[in-house]
Amino acid sequence: MLIFDTVAKLREHLTECRMRGLSIGLVPTMGALHEGHLALAGRCKAENNVAVCSIYVNPTQFNNPEDLAKYPRTPGTDLRMLQEVACDVVFMPTDAEMYPKPAALKMDFGNLETVMEGKFRPGHFNGVGVVVSKLLHMVQPDAAYFGQKDLQQCLVIKRLVQDLSFPVRLVIHPTVRETDGLAMSSRNQRLTPAQRAAAPLLHQALGMAREILFNHGTTELARKTVERHLSQSEELRLEYFEIAQADDLSPLPDGTVEPPFALCIAAYAGSVRLIDNLLVVGR
C-alpha cells in the first residue's frame, strides 16, 4: 500500500497506472474509519484495478469550529484497516496541500442548499463541493464511492458531477449499520454509553414512519410518531424529520404518499449530531 501526501506524487503514480491500462476507483473519507468505510473500500477494490482512499478532514465543510476540533482523527488505525482490505493507494494531504490559497469559489446546489442539512448547516455543501471537485481532479478516477447514510451529500455530488461533466461513475453504497440498526458513523465514537444506547431510536423511528405511510397513514401521523418515539429518551433532541422526494429531497405535501420517497432525520445526542435516512422505493 502506497501513501502519498502531495498531489504531485499521487498524480505521478496514477498516471503510470493509467498508462498500463489500469482502472482507478476513489473512496473519499475524513478518516476515523469504520466498517462502513471498509465496505466502500472493499467494493472499490473489487470493481477496479487500483483502489485509492483519501483521508482528509476538510475544514471548509464544517460550519461549527467546535465540531471540526472534536472530529476524531485516528490515522494509524485507519492505515492498518485499509491495509487489511488491500487498498492500493492512500492520499493523506495537509491543509496547505489541499488549499494553497483560501478557496474563493462558491457553489450553489439549488434546493439542496435550503432543506435539511443545507438548512441547518449553511455553507456545508459548498465546502463538500469544493473538496470533492479537487479530489476528482487530483485522482481522475473511473469510479467514486460514497455511502447512502449521507444521502443529501450523495445528491449534491451527483449534481456536481452532472453539471461539471466529470467523467466519473458515481457508486452509492447502502448504509452499513450496527447490529442494533444504528448507522455507522465516525461521530459514534464520541457518544457516551447512555447516548449510544439511545441512538438506535433514530433508525427505529424511520422504520415506524415507513410502516405508517405504507398503511396509508398521513405524513402528519408519521411526524408525530417519530417525535413521540424519540421523546422516550432524554439523551436525544430531534432537529428535523422530513418526508421528501427521493431524487431531490424537495418536501412532499401533507397527506398520504406513495413510493418512491425519502425519510430523513437528524438529532443531537449531547453535542454529537447524528443523521440517518431510508430510501423507500417500493412496498
Search tags:
283 residues, alpha/beta, 6-stranded parallel sheet, 3-stranded antiparallel sheet, 11 helices, 19% strand
Descriptive account of the structure:
Helix 8 (151-163) links the parallel strand 5 (143-147) and strand 6. The protein is an alpha/beta fold and 283 residues long. The longest helix has 16 residues, at 124-139. It is built from eleven helices and nine strands. The strands form two sheets. It has a six-stranded parallel beta sheet with strand order 1-4-3-2-5-6, sandwiched between helices. The chain is globular.
Point out poorly predicted stretches.
none
Gap from first CA to last CA: 44 Å
**Main pleated-sheet profile:** 6 strands, parallel
General form: globular
N-to-C SSE series?
EHEHEHHEHHHEHEHHHEEE
Tell me the strand order in the biggest sheet: 1-4-3-2-5-6
Tell me the total number of β-strands.
Answer: 9
What would the average pLDDT be, to the nearest integer? 96
Which oligomerization state do the chains in this entry correspond to? single chain
Q: What is this structure's SSE topology?
A:
Blueprint lengths: L1 E3 L2 H13 L4 E6 L5 H13 L2 E6 L9 H6 L4 H10 L4 E3 L3 H4 L18 H4 L3 H16 L3 E5 L3 H13 L5 E5 L19 H6 L2 H14 L4 H12 L5 E9 L16 E9 L2 E9 L3
Parallel strand pairs: 1-4, 2-3, 2-5, 3-4, 5-6
Antiparallel strand pairs: 7-8, 8-9
How do you describe this structure in short?
The protein is α/β, with parallel strands linked by helices and 283 residues long. It contains eleven helices and nine strands.
